[in-house]
Design goal:
This protein has 118 residues and is mostly helical. It has a single domain, classed as Orthogonal Bundle (Helix Hairpins). The chain is built from 5 helices and no strands. The protein has helices at 3-20, 24-49, 61-81, 86-100, 110-116. Helix 2 (24-49) runs antiparallel to helix 3 (61-81). The longest helix is centred in the N-terminal third of the chain and has 26 residues, at 24-49. The chain is extended. This is Phosphoribosyl-ATP pyrophosphohydrolase.
Length: 118
């Protein structure tokens, strides 16, 4: 990740700490913020797909990507609020997930998956 991202995460975490404190309630609020941001990402995707016929298409893929970035940044702030290093946690989790992934050559084709569901 870029220095800009980590500087922003650190600055925002510090600002929240000064403004709201660092007790368990505040950490809970920061973790719950993820749910709010995820809801906004979901709403943007619904809007990008025109999922509400009354509203039609209201968002773009860029809007969706921005909302997803807000989710990621909020998660990093929540991790930092737990007094953990978000970079180290994300790197560790990426390694765990990478180890779980099957070899791409073993993945069934899309057609095979579609045939199984019919």
């Amino acid at each position: 990740m870029t220095d800009t991202i980590w500087t922003t995460v650190d600055s925002f975490t510090d600002w929240l700490d000064r403004a709201n404190g660092t007790d368990e309630h505040e950490i809970t609020m920061r973790i719950l913020k993820l749910t709010e941001e995820a809801g906004e990402a979901a709403a943007a995707w619904i809007g990008a797909r025109g999922g509400n016929p009354r509203k039609g298409v209201t968002h773009t893929r860029d809007d969706v990507a921005d909302e997803l970035a807000d989710v990621a940044l909020s998660a990093m702030v929540a991790i930092a609020s737990l007094r953990m290093d978000p970079d180290a946690v994300l790197t560790r989790r990426a390694r765990v997930i990478a180890e779980r992934m099957p070899d791409p050559a073993d993945a069934p084709s899309r057609a095979a998956c579609e045939n199984r569901s019919t």
